[in-house]
Design a protein that fits this description.
The radius of gyration is 25 Å and the shape is elongated. The protein starts with 7 loop residues before the first helix and ends with a strand. It is built from five helices and 23 strands. By secondary structure, the protein is mainly beta.
Amino acid sequence: MRGLWVTLAALAALAFASPAGADDLWLPHSTDAAWTYQWSDSVYATTPTLESVTVKSSAAGLFVLGWTTDGLGNPAGSVSSAGTVSFRETNAGIVNTDWSSTPPPPNFPVLCPQILNCGNALSSTLYNLIWGARQPILSEPLLKGVTWASTGGAANDVSSTSTYMGHERVTVPAFPEGVVAAKVVTRITQAGALGDPYGSGTRTIWWVYGVGPVKIEFDHAGGGTAPVTTAMLQTTSLTPAGVPGDTDFFPLTKGKNLAYRWTNTKHLRTPEVDRFTIDAVVNGTARVKLVTATGPIKVVGSYGFSKRLDGVTNLWGNTTSASKLKFPQLGPAGAPLAQRNHFVTALDLFTFGINPMLTPYPAVGDHWSTSHHSDDYATYAVDGQSRIVGMRSVTVPAGTFRALVVTSTLTQKGFPYGSGTRTCWFASGVGLVKLVFAHRDGSVSTVELLK
């Protein structure tokens, strides 16, 4: 298939390569957006503090939120502060790029190895939001089972692992009747700071689509009387949006094994069985390796897939094969024969012609088309359209599944075998379970999950 090889070391660099492009609804930042939070700490800031958060600037996927405690009628004993936090939208989620503020109160733990020139603080709602998990703060798309590692702190000496726990209804003053939120739990570790127990612990954030964080609870490390920081949304100018579905129809889990049987009614009557394993995952990008292949085609190879806000995308593929079978030619017509596409594994039929394979939050009615200005068109020269048609029951050797059905119409000019209608079935938590490609040469390829 694709004559492109990407090493695993390069995959990490792809994680934040392109902006999401639109106002990310997990943390909206239109210029009129405003939030008021109240936060407190059970040991170091027992008097609750109100903070007003507004958008200071927003352009081209970069935005700055600012907060102040001035003019809110805070009582004596509350924390007086002001500051800004800078963010960037990326194709893999929301990233924190910078921050500045008034110093934390002198009674707060020092979150650096020394007191002087310490750039760390946990004395505001936004600081509790970004602490320990700056790149990204929130990994996207936010689907069931997603877990990500991150770092934070002025010297990147804070590490964290975040896990999306699913949807949960939460009640805060801004939404007294309750609102559905995405719950993210983060385990945070800081080592070497004077106050590193305070910089470590478990933080839970409830994110509301269309609003942003509505509640933050940070259970700091320590004994039974360890501090707990709590922030809750009091008011906002924003309205919750419909929560996107979080079903993962294409899980990229390291160590996951998949076995597919592939036949074609004209060109491959003896089944080819391909066994794959996901042998590496970095920042939502996975390398899928062909472990063994049995049947009339002798082949080795691997593939790269990423899961981003532009969907599940095939990044690259590399195969070497030998067979006595004679398959019809594939294009593109302008490429030398040695650089033409070939169907030699089950995944070749799946990745052929059009990206993405799935939208980031797959929903019935989603549809997309190829572009002549894309890398995919340069690789395949395929005109095509895909759409999600609905949920259907499908039975394959691996079992019976309730699956999301995606149909694609593909035309590779001058090559009937590279043209036709492809139908894919995706099962939650499993991935691709069946594929049927009705080629315009009159043959039909069928791929089924064996286990």
